[in-house]
Design goal:
Elements lengths: L10 H25 L1 H22 L11 H30 L2 H6 L7 H28 L6 H29 L3 H16 L12 H8 L2 H13 L9 H4 L1 H25 L4
Helix pairs in contact: 1-2, 1-5, 2-3, 2-5, 3-5, 3-6, 3-7, 3-9, 5-6, 6-9, 6-11, 9-11
């Protein structure tokens, strides 16, 4: 007796198949958060606590060049930092699934090769959007406002989510590469210097030349400067090319990361040992 194996779908049918599989994985990740709400809530409240510390404990001693309200200066940087630190949750979850064999079980199923990483990406973006909404509400509560109209404000929010989306794929790739707890912990520690080595709290002009150059060209710095401009909030300014073209760089850096890490993530997933 011969058993006929159906041919894999093609064209639009293949795309619908991949999207349906990705949504199933997204639902699985969302269900995990629903069953463990404490972890989700803590992830949302931690950046709020950091905002309160900087706004009310350190804010009185901070002077913004050219004047301006410190809390309005602070909040765009905190929004971007929340997006950057979200990479920890991504690569930790991906690495845990790979180490426990969950990813290998998914690979044994008749599903689209991109569905697991795409589903994780959608779930984490929903998480990040919720976190950004909480942060914006916190900013409004402490006195932050935007001054350039709703269109510019939405563009700023779009740049923040674009940065998170790009870093999300970097996190997926790193999570597939680092499959032990020690390596993941070391990477978590390295995320903090990357976040703080930017123009969020200090002007790159006040740093040693080589360190200021790194901070100036940090993708996070581009997004922070661009969102400050779009929100109409005070910033450090600067006469370097990166400072003068912050909005352009806030698009170029995430686009470059996406071009690099999306194919790397899918290829790495496909090559995982079973």
């Amino acid at each position: 007796m011969t058993i006929a194996i159906p041919a894999p779908p093609r064209g639009l049918a293949r795309l619908r198949w991949a999207l349906a599989d990705a949504w199933v994985i997204t639902g699985r990740d969302l269900a995990h958060w629903a069953r463990q709400p404490a972890q989700f809530v803590i992830g949302l409240l931690f950046p709020v606590m950091v905002v309160l510390i900087f706004a009310y404990m350190f804010g009185g001693g901070m002077v913004i060049p050219g004047g301006g309200d410190y809390r309005e200066f602070l909040m765009p940087g905190m929004y971007a930092m929340t997006m950057v630190f979200g990479i920890e949750a991504t690569f930790t979850a991906v690495s845990a699934d790979a180490a426990r064999g969950v990813t290998d079980r998914f690979r044994s199923l008749p599903m689209a090769p991109s569905a697991v990483v795409t589903g994780r990406g959608v779930a984490d973006m929903l998480n990040s959007a919720a976190g950004l909404a909480v942060m914006i509400a916190c900013g409004l509560a402490v006195g932050w406002r935007w001054h350039e109209g709703p269109g510019a404000a939405l563009a700023a929010v779009g740049l923040l989510l674009l940065l998170r989306f790009a870093l999300l794929w970097a996190g997926i790739y790193l999570g597939l590469v680092l499959r032990n707890a020690e390596a993941v912990m070391a990477l978590q520690i390295l995320v903090w210097p990357v976040g703080f080595l930017s123009n969020t709290f200090a002007s790159p002009a006040t740093m040693p030349g080589w360190l200021g150059a790194i901070a100036e060209w940090n993708p996070m710095s581009a997004t922070v400067s661009a969102t400050r401009e779009l929100f109409g909030n005070p910033g450090w300014g600067g006469d370097t090319w990166a400072a003068q073209h912050a909005q352009l760089m806030a698009l170029v850096w995430p686009s470059l990361l996406l071009v690099i890490f999306i194919p790397l993530s899918v290829r790495r997933y496909q090559r995982l040992s079973s």
